[in-house]
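To illustrate this point, we now present one chain and its tokenised fold:
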Amino acid sequence: MSTHRPFGRALCAMITPFTDSGALDLDRAGELAAHLVAEGCDGLVVNGTTGESPTTSDAEKSELIRAVRAAIGPGPSLVAGVGTADTRHTVELARGAEAAGADGLLVVTPYYSRPPQDAVAAHFLKVADGTGLPLMVYDIPGRTGTRVEPDTMRRLAGHPRITAVKDCSYDLLASARLIAETPLAYYSGSEELNLPLYAVGGAGYVSTVANVAPRPFAAVLDAYDSGDTALAARLHARTLPLVQRMMAAGLPGTVTVKALLGGPLREPLRPADRETADGLRALLAELAG
């Protein structure tokens, strides 16, 4: 069974701050990154979809990596989202992320084109061959239209740099079997499954909600690791109302995070309305209380 944690346990899928004019706000990005690490995050994922990667340029992605690396120093893991629907472009982004100072790569399944499984495997293998960085496979069929099937995961696990999975498959049985059968480190990408996946051997989580509540999520894993599984379950349950409102109520996580932290979004995303933002603030205060 996999027990290694190549990127730590508690990772935040960080938003990308923008100025009022729509430019990257690198100062604020550095401040947020440092805050998240100080509040218990072992690592950060930048340039993911939570970070509005579909609307940031390749140059902006590299700038953001450099700014966050400077802010958090060499200790915490810095994983760069580089996934696109174009293998060639993904390899280019991976090389740019490596040059900018990333420690690892988050690579989503090619979306929309719905390639067959042999093509899915070839995509990940080519990206893994393109740099010297470890790679986290991002399996989120609800967004991409294509699942990374278990047999494909077993094949990918044979590559020395494919070390981890961000799991949004909602198939705990398959994930538990792959944890047991492969060296892949499984990170929950769905906050409501953080504790269940961890309990069957998962490595930790990559969380969007951790942008606003890093300590409550880390505390769940701390309690479980200490052997107090009942406390872990109670702490996990306390996070669920906020998780449901932020991630399962019809708005993208980026929108709900920025409703709490402030700052502009890039179109086509639009800000949450005042009623939604007020409800989110109330739930966050309840979790913190």
Notes: The mean pLDDT is 97. Residues 11 and 206 are 5 Å apart (CA to CA). Strands lie at 10-13, 43-46, 77-81, 104-108, 135-139, 162-167, 185-188, 204-207.
